[in-house]
Design brief:
The complex is a heterotrimer of chains A (189), B (389) and C (332).
Chain A (H helix, E strand, L loop, with lengths): L1 E8 L4 H14 L3 E6 L9 E9 L14 E4 L19 E5 L17 E4 L1 H9 L5 H12 L4 H11 L2 H27 L1
Chain B lengths: L1 E5 H11 L4 E4 L6 H12 L7 E4 L3 H13 L4 E5 L1 H6 L1 H9 L5 E6 L13 H5 L6 E4 L3 H18 L3 E6 L7 E5 L3 H7 L16 E2 L8 H30 L7 E4 L6 E5 L3 H14 L4 E6 L1 E3 L3 H8 L4 E6 L10 H8 L6 E6 L9 H12 L6 E3 L4 H6 L2
Parallel strand pairs in B: 2-3, 2-4, 4-5, 5-7, 6-7, 11-12, 11-14, 14-15, 15-16
Antiparallel strand pairs in B: 1-8, 6-13, 10-12
Helix pairs in contact in B: 1-2, 1-7, 3-5, 7-9, 8-9, 10-13, 11-12
Chain C lengths: L46 H16 L4 E5 L3 H6 L11 E3 L5 H14 L6 E7 H6 L2 H10 L3 E7 L40 H7 L4 E6 L3 H11 L6 E6 L3 H4 L6 H10 L6 E4 L2 E5 L9 H6 L14 H18 L8
Classes of the chains: A alpha/beta (189), B alpha/beta (389), C alpha/beta (332).
Amino acid sequence: MFQIRIHGRGGQGVVTAAELLSAAAFASGRYAQAFPSFGSERTGAPVVSYCRLSDAPIRLREPVMHPDAIIVQDSTLLLQVDVFAGLTPDGTVLVNSRLTRAALHLERLAPDRVVILPATQLALTHAGRPLPNAALLGGFAAQTGLLSLDSVTRAIRDRFRGGVADGNVAAATDAYHRVLSRAKEQVDA
Amino acid sequence: MLRQIEGSQAVAETVARCRPQVICAYPISPQTHIVEGLSRLVKAGELAGCEFVNVESEFAAMSVAIGAVAAGARTYTATASQGLLFMAEALYNASGLGLPIVMTVANRAIGAPINIWNDHSDAMSQRDSGWIQLYAESNQDAVDLHVQAFRLAEELSVPVMVCMDGFVLTHAYERVDVPTRQQVDAYLPPFTPRQQLDPDAPLTIGAMVGPEAFTEVRYLAHQVQRQALRRIPELAAEFETVFGRSAGGNVRPYRLADAQTVVVALGSVLGTLKDTVDEMRDDGIRVGALGLTTFRPFPAEALREALAPAPRVVVLERAFSVGTGGIVSADLDTALTGLPQRRYTVVAGLGGRPVTKASLRAVIEAALADELAPMTFLDLHQSTVEALP
Amino acid sequence: MTAITFHQTGSLTVGNRLLPPEQRTVQSTGTRTNALTCGHRACQGCGEALGARFVLDAAMRATGGQLVVVNATGCLEVFSTPYPESAWRIPWIHSLFGNAPAVASGVAAALRVRGRTDIRVLGQGGDGGTVDIGFGALSGMFERDDDVLFVCYDNEAYMNTGVQRSGATPPAARTATTQAVGPDPGNVFGQGKSAPLIAMAHEIPYVATATVADPHDLERKVARAMEFHGARYLHVLVPCPLGWGSATADTIRVARLAVQCGLFPLLEAERGQIVAVTPLRRAPVPVEEYLRIQKRYAHLFSPHMRTDVIDRIQALADRTIARFGLRSTGEA
């Protein structure tokens, strides 16, 4: 079982991100479970959502306490919340930001575990709205290799329609290729 | 059809396929997505022959349901927590009048203090109301139980509440095989009321019954519930032939053979519990679990039969009777009277506190070592207890 | 041959038998439904039993017998259905005290979805079940404009439980919870709670008031109500000899006096606008004449005359007369 935890703020689509992840996994024939940490819904407040992926039916219902991957939709949370709590030794981190690893004070994490992606920018460019979740989904797929871009695309198109779907797919695709090419750079280096 | 879908939405689509004729509901977290989903289907014209009534309170919701089903319409509503209490009077009225309403209860704690998160206080508080109570373990289970609930309710003329854990199930996205209309039609015939308001055959519903007959009315209601205990497994078997999967039934044993400790639980915590059992079994520890799907009527005989060989039984409660103790435990103690075993009550997950594998494992190990107190609160934060005034 | 003019034709004295058949009351016909038939346990002189019989037989005629009735808890329900007997000859359901309007909404929804809008729905209850505990449900039914005629039989207190004060209890009236003791005996002088005016504020298709003293008027309003679809409200004053302390033979007389002194206006409204009032045919009767024959006001006359209180009640009556324009033209 692969466990993911997503951190963000209310209104940024943190819950949708987990749902899309689970939908992408379903599209690729896997079992997936997505749920929010249930708090009062309030724009701007820290929000957490969870996703589990597995080849077998998922019965576990507890919050994800030992994530294999963490996605941070809002980097200001790095100063406020212990987003890395319980991260497994080989666990990966995907952060939505334009800053460097150093500027985000993430030096303690090995570079091959961290991907920093300007997801909000990609969202604005492709979809016209600063909702980073689709781009982060594409980035996550490339970072972990767990999901194909095709399954991500299908999940987005199932959820959104028309121009919104197109924009989100474009953002996800752009993010996917950026992350993929960066990984290749690292390997080559 | 296999879907990756939110629990609430799966329930809404399934209820829609059960051909409800009147839906009346008042919004309350965490049931809102169910009624929103149904109202969308009705408004878009995708649910033919159905009226969606936007009522002004939960008391009104159950009351509109009473009128609708008495006038011959298949009727559905949903609520949780405070809303269930607000309609408490109407719950007793519906069961007393023998009206086959089906209701989803998205289990949530009852205030004060106000708390919108999951436990079983709400439905448990109404365990004497004469409603049949079924508890879903997963969203697949929730969906399947709703279909069976309509059959059960209409056959016996008893209202049925399908309990699904608020947020934990209602707001979880997971794989669900959502029944098709053809499948539901093959299982659930049109509603033929035992009696209804009809100018061509007038009758009086809701007469005043005095001491000379009230006891007998209640006695008969009890007999009908005993009958439900027999019918539930039969309806489950029929469900399996139509839908191709096992669902329903009164109790669900899990790895009980030679178990030294069995944990009894209701609802979604069973998922986590089964993972815990498997891990402990992998470590050579002989434990098992027993899921209780039907809580009312209480399947005492089935429980006794399943649990008799177990030296230890731990009852995992998601609600609590203040001033005395466990609720399920009390019923279970009666069912298991005279059996030479140790029984423990563990009150867990009140007000939405997560029930974790680690905590469950610790409790089971304590029981196995005979170090568990007769009643404990799982993960009680002593520092918070001391800090509160 | 000269035609003989019957000057008393149509008057209450002569009754119906000289009227052309189409002008006679439903109650005077042998073919009436008798929806609430004999054998029930109501008190001698019960205004509510009378009102319910008038209303339901009129409703049955107006709907061609296609009627379902929803009844709130209260005297009417209790005295009419002592298991295993029932005095109802029509389809009838009693659920709870506070939910009759909601249950009626549910019945209407079911009939609609089953394609039986030919069957009409009537909800009914006392003032307690309508104005107090059932008020939320009543307002909800109005707001949704559900196809229900709701009838309130107002005897101005919770009678079935022993005459306790309700939101409809008039000022100064003695009840078990507004006793005739102390410096301000009886019920307080508040703002009142006019269910007909509140119904009008909901702008429902039809609202009317009536009493058991004028069966023609009451039956006509029931029939009129059944010409509309959507939410309708009928408020019927029904004296309770026990609770009001009036003679059992005086029920109709007391109801008539309530109208004639101006305290109970007879009106009809459509979509929030008054369309008709019944003017007082003579000068208004002083309220004292109305109060004097009810023991619930006995403390206003004995041991001393409480002219201060009676004057306040008179002022209420005067205000009602002015407000609804109840003085017929030409009167001083």
